[in-house]
Amino acid sequence: MYKHLFFAVFAINTLSFISSCKEVGPDINLHGNANSGTDTAYVESPVATPEAKNVLIEEFTGVQCANCPQGHIAEAGIEAAYAPGRVAGIALHPNNALGFPYPFSLQNLINTPSTNLYVYLGNLGSEPCAGVDRQLFSSQSSIELDRSYWAGFVAQEIALTPQVNIELSSMYNTSNRQATIMAKIHYTQNVSQPNNITITLTEDSVVTAQLNGPITIDTFYVHNNVLRSILTGTEGDNVAYNANVTLVAGRVVQLVYQGSINAQWNPLHMHVVAFVHEHSTSQVVYQAKKISLAN
């Protein structure tokens, strides 16, 4: 369904740069992948000034979870407490007993990416639970947290200085329902851990049945931040996939991804959520960015 084009960046040693200039290497393709395009290499000078830190909340939820609407309210309240875009929420509907749709449900929100992330990120064994920047906080045994902790840890994370800036843009073709996502990553400091980038598509205003409390089923419940697809691998794609690439201040990585928008999804209600994160002993998120898919 998806094809992606990578633009990887290599170190360029120079004696001097004039302000705001960049050195561009030759167009090459190192992937050996038919879906990949040309790779362009450059290092920018001066190094980009770190942008404001944005926080990612990945919330595991389910339509047969009686307490999950309270999680939805808590997450929405956190987003509303900050300027638009400062908190990016993703609602994950894994394939478990709490996610099974009702016979009268208008949609089945379970999907494979949510289920894979349920395994990759771990879970508390109960929902709702959520990760905040995939950070393992000192007082916790899991990156998945009870909702009582979300607001406090978001406030802690949003005060940090990110190691990377993310420029994100999207184009949507209404005639063939194809989305093209363009991301540019600017490293603002040296990074020693392996990094991946994950690019997701989410949808708001999705109407389908939800258990709301012990016995009440809201047939026309409105779900937001519903994960629809992941354009990268489930665990993200390696930013520095070549051994010669080191993630140093000034490194710039450009990427372009393309994906089809299912006929059941409303592109006017969809968002792109992209984030750069560690991918080794930790999955901690450095920076996240959320934009509208089609407008």
Fold and architecture overview:
- The chain is mostly beta strands and 295 residues long.
- The chain is built from three helices and 19 strands.
- Strand 12 (210-211) and strand 13 form a beta hairpin.
- Strands 10, 15, 16, 18 and 19 form a five-stranded antiparallel β-sheet that branches. Strands 1-17-9-8 form a four-stranded antiparallel β-sheet, with no helix packed on it. A four-stranded mixed β-sheet has the order 5-4-6-7.
- The chain has a single domain (3-292), classed as Immunoglobulins (Immunoglobulin-like).
- The longest helix has 14 residues, at 68-81.
Instruction: Count the domains.
Output: 1
Estimate percent helicity.
Answer: 10-25%
Q: What is the CATH topology assignment?
A: Immunoglobulin-like
Shape: globular
Q: How many E-type strands?
A: 19
Radius of gyration: 20 Å
Instruction: Return the CATH architecture.
Output: Sandwich
Mean pLDDT: 86
User: Main β-sheet, in a few words?
Assistant: 5 strands, antiparallel
What share of residues are in beta strands? 25-35%
The number of distinct helices, counting runs of at least 4 residues, comes to 3
Gap between N and C termini: 23 Å
SSE run: EEEEHEHEEHEEEEEEEEEEEE
Structural class based on helices, strands and sheet pairing: mainly beta
Which CATH class? Answer: Mainly Beta
| CATH-defined superfamily | Immunoglobulins
Low-confidence stretches: 6-39
